[in-house]
Every structure is written in structure tokens, then in C-alpha cells.
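Q: what sequence does this backbone want?
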């Protein structure tokens, strides 16, 4: 079990390892949503994504180990590599062939080894488990881990401290680590707050598992929201149940809707945000997420690690 006290302890532990990210209002989205909308700029973390919170907390809790490893769709691996470098630990990050090259290179730039394994995150995890079993590496899972969930929950603390009257938090949903942590922190302090999970229609494992009533495997498909890909694990211990208990609504988006979210953030706010980070904005633009007269809607911009060359047709300014 993860409790509010674990999140508070994580906040103290990683205070000097992560940034307290800014928030900014969005007049254009507020008008569309019919209520006040604020953007939580988690894409301004040192490694470009919220994942640094959970990875830093999990790595900082370790004792003596040969090194650290994980399997990742990119952002978690980069965060683990960064945290390992801060603490002087070797890191081997296992990724699938679906992970964009810019994210793989970013891992290598931090001094970690990026080991490309197979066509899915599950395949990459096989190698990470081997490193844990045979070489004494500490495995830091991307979401289904007490330390990771507590670390992500520090984002929820920041949001409710800044917006004590927040009515809704829109959270990108993949394996559920971010949503579980944010929802636990927010609902522990303000039980009536609404938590909306947002993912893509193509290969959303948590959405499919919730519909089935238990964790299932899904085929990973290429998506603009590549950071939301990957399975949740057939033996998921924490995030499936926490997501099922704490999430109030789930929204799925098409690729065109995600692209519109990326474009809007670039055109109206000058923020280069990856597909996974733009899903809250995309849901508002698509008319699938509305504001609330009881308080602001907070959309988490979870990451910026988009390849601008690959997606130049999306992020170019309007009218060009």
C-alpha cells in the first residue's frame, strides 16, 4: 500500500533532485472548456518529464547495488539514468524498437547504456529482469512500484497546494503510476476532487484492462502518444487497483485529436510538448473534457520529449 505519508516523505527526499514546476493559465482553453483551465508545466522538469519524480525517489531509497536498470518507453529510462548519475550508480536502460531515437539518445547522453530489445516494453522487461537476477542490478519499474508512485504523488501535492479549490485534474494515463500518485495525494487532501485519466485509442493497456476487469496484454501500436504505450503487467500489484479506485472518468483520443493538442500548445503557448503530455489539452479541444464552475481544471503537461523533426508537420506555426 502507498499512503499519503509516503508521498510526503518522498517530497522531502527529492526536494533537491527535482524542480517544483510552474503553472500557467490558458485563456483559449478556458473559453473552450467553459471554465477556468490551468496548465501544470511538468514538461519543464530537468529531464523533460514528470518521471524524474518517481525515479529519483525510488533510486534514492536504494542501499548498496551493482547498478540500476529498468524497461521504458523513454521518459522513465531517462529519469532513472539521470537519478543514477546523481548518485554515482551505473545504469542500463532497456527499451523496445518502438521508442523514438531522440529518447534513446537522451538516455545515452546521461551516461547510461540504452539497450534496445524486441518490439515491446514487455520484451525489454525480460532483459531488465535478467540484469536484476543475474548481475545484481536494482530494477526500478516505470509505474508499479511503491517508491515510484509516491514520487509521482509529489506532483499531486504541488497541485493541491497551489490550487486548493481545484475541481478537476486531467492526468495522462499509461501504466497508472502518475494517476495513482496524483489521485492519492489530491483525494487524500480534497476527497471531492475529480480525477480524469486520458489516453489514446490505439493500444491503451490500462483502458483495456479496466474494461476486462483485470490486467490483460494488448498489442503495442505506433502512436503520437508513444509515452503512453506499453503494458501494465499481468501481475500488476498496485496501479491497476489504485487506478480503478481513484479515477473518476477515462477519456480516449484519436491520433488526430492528439495532434491538435500538440499543435495548440505550440501555437498558443509556445510549448513544445509530446503527444502524451498534450492529451489533457487535446481532450478539451475535442469537446470530451469540460471545465467546472466549482473550481479550476488542471491539465498536466507531462513531458516535452517530442522529436520536432519527425513531427514538423504538427508543430509548425499556423498559416505556414
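A:
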Amino acid at each position: 500500500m502507498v499512503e499519503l505519508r509516503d508521498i510526503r516523505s518522498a517530497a522531502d527526499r527529492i526536494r533537491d533532485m527535482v524542480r517544483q514546476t510552474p503553472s500557467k493559465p490558458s485563456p483559449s482553453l478556458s473559453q473552450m472548456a467553459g471554465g477556468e483551465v490551468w496548465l501544470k508545466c511538468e514538461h519543464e522538469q530537468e529531464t523533460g518529464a514528470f518521471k524524474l519524480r518517481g525515479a529519483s525517489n525510488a533510486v534514492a531509497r536504494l542501499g548498496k547495488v551493482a547498478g540500476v536498470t529498468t524497461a521504458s518507453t523513454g521518459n522513465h529510462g531517462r529519469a532513472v539514468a539521470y537519478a543514477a548519475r546523481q548518485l554515482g550508480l551505473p545504469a542500463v536502460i532497456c527499451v523496445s524498437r518502438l521508442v523514438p531515437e531522440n529518447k534513446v539518445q537522451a538516455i545515452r547522453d546521461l551516461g547510461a547504456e540504452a539497450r534496445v530489445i524486441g518490439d515491446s516494453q514487455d520484451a525489454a522487461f525480460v532483459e531488465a529482469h535478467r540484469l536484476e537476477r543475474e548481475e545484481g542490478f536494482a530494477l526500478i519499474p516505470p509505474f508499479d512500484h511503491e517508491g515510484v508512485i509516491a514520487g509521482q504523488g509529489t506532483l499531486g501535492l504541488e497541485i493541491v497546494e497551489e490550487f486548493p479549490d481545484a475541481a478537476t485534474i486531467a492526468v495522462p494515463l499509461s501504466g497508472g503510476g502518475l494517476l495513482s500518485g496524483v489521485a492519492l495525494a489530491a483525494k487524500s487532501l480534497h476527497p471531492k476532487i475529480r480525477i480524469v485519466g486520458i489516453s489514446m485509442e490505439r493500444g491503451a493497456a490500462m483502458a483495456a484492462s479496466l474494461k476486462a476487469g483485470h490486467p490483460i496484454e494488448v498489442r503495442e501500436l505506433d502512436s503520437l502518444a508513444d509515452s503512453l504505450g506499453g503494458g501494465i503487467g499481468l501481475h500488476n500489484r498496485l496501479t491497476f487497483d489504485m487506478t480503478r479506485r481513484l479515477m473518476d472518468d477515462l477519456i480516449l483520443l484519436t491520433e488526430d485529436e492528439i495532434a491538435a493538442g500538440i499543435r495548440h500548445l505550440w501555437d498558443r503557448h509556445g510549448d513544445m510538448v509530446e503527444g502524451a503530455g498534450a492529451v489533457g489539452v487535446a481532450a478539451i479541444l475535442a469537446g470530451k473534457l469540460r471545465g467546472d464552475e466549482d473550481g479550476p481544471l488542471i491539465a498536466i503537461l507531462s513531458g516535452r520529449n517530442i522529436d520536432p523533426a519527425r513531427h514538423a508537420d504538427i508543430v509548425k506555426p499556423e498559416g505556414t
